[in-house]
Design brief:
Length: 401
Amino acid sequence: MSTAPLTSNEKIDVCRGLFAFLVVIAHGVDVAWTIHPHAPLAMSHRVHDLWLYVVAAGTYWVIGFFVISGYCIQLSVERQIRDGRFPIKTYLAARLTRILPLYYVALGSAVVFECLMAPARPDCWPHGLELNTLAAQLFVVQNLYQTFGSFAPSWSITNEMFYYLFYGAVVVVALKRGVRPTTLGMVVCLVAAAAFESVYFTYFRSNAFIRSPGLLFGLGVIWFQGAMVAEYRGRLRSNASARFASRLWPAVLLTAVALWYLHAIHIQVLYLILGAAFSLMLMRFAIADAPGAVAPDRGAVGALIRASGLASYPTYLFHGPFVMWLGSMMIRLNLVPNDWRITWLTLSAAGIGSGLILGFVAERPIMAWRVGFLKRLKAESAPRAVGSPSPSSSPILGIQQ
């Protein structure tokens, strides 16, 4: 087994899994407190806030996901651009097949779990149990409306879908104009977020038509921070100031948590500080990574890292309905422990464990299908010289493409 330092890709896989597990732990507190409503009332103010603003604050890790997403998508875009041309069809196919198949499976399971838990539903994530909300989820615009009951963790998928589509359009325009796509995307997000916020606070206070789109573009600024780290990673490795700043990412993250715990900052300021922290984290990963580094065989450790990455998306998508249903069953079967922390640990372990299992039984086969689908799509869309064999008659050509 190799003892070489982890590559940046391996570190990102670890973070993706860890962030998803921490979101489950955070939501486990929310559900446990609805099952034990007197538990938070018995706590001191400081202890209550420690649980609520530190342990139960899944927002921290969702912001981390946005930054990592921007970083990874930029790397993908760089690999697809050839001779100043960007295959938008292939890009969109890659993005949609990455997010939608498991998303719709999870949405279907959410509907089933909501029906199963109806007789004794924990009073958590109560909104959205109606057809309009379900329709919003079907078209992946739920963040502009509201989420379907216990599928509430999917709110960020609206953002991801928007950033995928938006950045594809930005890359096409930027290449034609001769500007950097990350810069253009960042500028558009900054201007749009400022415009929506100005309208909201001065003219028209609409959450659906003004505030939600404003938040969408505002978090887009954070998404593009990750993309810019990816684009400038080569320069960052040779920049002494960047190397020093990247070492500060844990301190910046802890500062954000402390300020939120002390009620010293507004939620939008928290987002910005968290975005800076996770951008610095990715800078650190990129700086410490040798260009073109390939992960060696790490044996069991490598398998655990891969399992963490595989479990990330299904854990995030499925845990809300599953944990809520499990809480409902505890209530119906009179199995609620006296100590709320046992309920919390049980729900958290079940959510994480189910995500690890789904990583293998759901995410892995979907990703295997996706690899084959995209390989065929690229082979079909690749330009061929006159007289060259078609991909269908030349398996080797298909593999090379």
